[in-house]
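Example with several molecule types.
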Amino acid sequence: MNIDRTTHNPHLMQKKQFKHLLLGTFFIISVQSNAQIFKPQILDNPENIPSPVFPVPTERQMQWFETEFYGFTHYGPNTFVGREWGNDRKPDPMEYNPASIPDCDQWIETMHSAGMKGAVVVCKHHDGFCLWPTESTDFSVKNGTEIARKVNIPKLVSEACAKRGMKFGAYISPWDASNKHYATQEYVNNVLMKQITEICTDYGDMFEIWFDGANGGGGYYGGEAMTTRTINKATYYDWDNLLDSIHKMQPNCVVWGREYRWCGNEDGYSGKECWSNFTIDEITIEGANNKGIEDGIFFIPSEVDVRTTSKWFWTKDDEANTKSAEQLFRIYLESVGRNANLIMNCAPNTDGIIPEPVVNSLEGLGKLLDKRLKKDFAAGKKVSATQTRNPGNFNASNITDGDKDTYWATNDGEKTASITIDLGKTRTIHYVMLQEYIRLGQRIKGFTIETSKDNTFWTPFATGTTVGYKRIMAKDDNTESYGEGQKARYVRINITDSKECPLIHTISVY
Amino acid sequence: MKRIISILLLSSITAAGFAQENISFENNDCKAVSTYDQWKDSPFNTGKLEGQVAVIDNPYVEEQTNNSAKVLAFNRSRYGSHLYGAKVELNSPVRLSKEPVYLHVMVRSPKSGKITILALGKRHGWNSQSNSTFQIARTSLENVTADKWTDAVFKLTGNEEAEIHSLVLVPDNKSMTEKDKDYVVYFDEIMLSNDDTPRFQTEGSSTESNHEMKHPETVSIAFNSRMCNISAVNGGPVPETIPFGKDYTFNIQMDDDYVITGLKIKHGFNLSGEQFINKRQQWKEDTINLSKDGKITIPAKYIDGDINIEVLFTNRPR
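Resulting structure tokens for the full complex:
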């Protein structure tokens, strides 16, 4: 969280008697009655803008949320030895043994074909091997094989992203099982911070930096045998000061653990009820990650991380476990469609490319997204609502105008309402997507969706709880298959509960 | 007009020892007071409004609970965010520690509920860094009773290189702040201690304790699962709620490189809050040791409230 400005101008009025005592540079004001201490303040609101329901996202977080779906790459020494964490072997830079420079263009092109808008690349995993020529440690490509010495993964990936107009992000494991200083402040000050500074300085603009919550445990830590080192995840890394440093270098980059959170599982789903509100303590407790905390005082939305196979790093036999395009589409519905962003792992193999089965599934996913969630039947169509905020520009027509900065709202205190969209003709409906205007806070707690062919007889479609940035509802909220859909001309959304007047900027029907 | 209190050195608090120095607003024992809003677009940050805070004569000086001469008065404006409060700049920075210390603040508010503090400061040795960088946020262990002095207690821990230079006292962190009117909140006698016991009990005080609660029919269940797949017995997704007081069975399948060693089960109420509030236990943490994954049953004795389950594992031997 950025801290911006403070105010320094307290104001006193309406005292019957006061006494000033000047000693050096201070004042004491004596009030001898219960007369009003402070003056009344009025702030005009000529546009009748609803008051925020806190917490609210920063601009940086809004840009992150609007990225929605992006890739993850796990590639490094583990790829060549067939391990996931790599903490249980003595560090050897020669283990990273590519036969050629990895084809990061192919990685990014594959992600692009899936509909992803960015890529987050693993620069250092728990084994501690750095995939760029860092000054912070000898355990890096600088001291690797002849080919490895020519590799700079963040450079290759950031350049590939820039070519395609995709966003670039980086993963740096805070836990370092090879570094002798790990578990001391020497590691934080002179290793981790140095690595973060290099990544944040040398490779262009970043949209996200990822700090894995897996921490501590067994490792060689610069020695000759495995030992165990543990740290207090909540305090050891001094995240808030690290965040401040990162933002000075990368003002548009969201930082893991303070500006977004892990969803709590690696299976690819967010909670059907999912609040972006959260607390900092819960980041390390990790009990409420999937659902969020309705009364959480910080805006720390959820990110779903998932594997396209069954592992983070590639192995040949794991190619058989590649998820199908339909499975990946379901994951999309259960993450992006449940108020969370989705980061999907695409692990390159020892040849430095994403293997064909994964490429095929990701291309298939891109086609499914295009086919099933692109043509919006509701765009530009007529909308009516049972309540509309007045005065001001909050008409129901804002919901289908294609502009995310206009929204429908009710009056203060009106927490329920119904919105009806006339699609103009009968359609087969598979999904209804709702988006709150979350710049003023997440509000909706309950809703139902019904459809009708004649605007008289209504058929239930789905029931839900939270909406947030985006909620995609399938029939009966069942994501298992595309199904037959439901024929209707009219779609009615009934908001049954909200923290305050609901604000919706878009409803789409697919 | 800014009210500045002249500097009196406040002893630094370290993990090895501490001094129970108060900020009592009587004797120049803090550097300055002002207002602060964490919300970037607050009218108090954009210049549309000026924050209002002052050291004044104690309007409740006749009451025995707090008869000090001076208190800090803060105008809780309807236009501030849920993290808008009175900022007290310390005479000297206080270093945090991974061992907890407890901040006590006397509060008198017309509203009941929790109080939050934000600690602002910087990392020791980072000389170019602003000393108003956010460090930690804590919500009081106690609920404040309306219109009575309450000793609000906050547990402070942090990185030992982090310094606190100011405290922001936030009287109301509810997401929808009071819209109809402003109100005045009083603060006094800020103290650091290694004891979390309130300095006095407030009549009518309440905490979120489950002792008098009738148990619910269902409780929430959440998993913290890395390097494994969790599913219901039928292979489908696990539910978000399960019946209170009954065994619960589910499947865990570890990834190839890992073996399960157990489950850490946090169970009870207010799982996101402190374990003890006023010495009343809100939740417990138990560990079940496991040697293999597959179908796992959580005994009913652990399903005595909401549950968070963390899967414990280690590397599979090579």
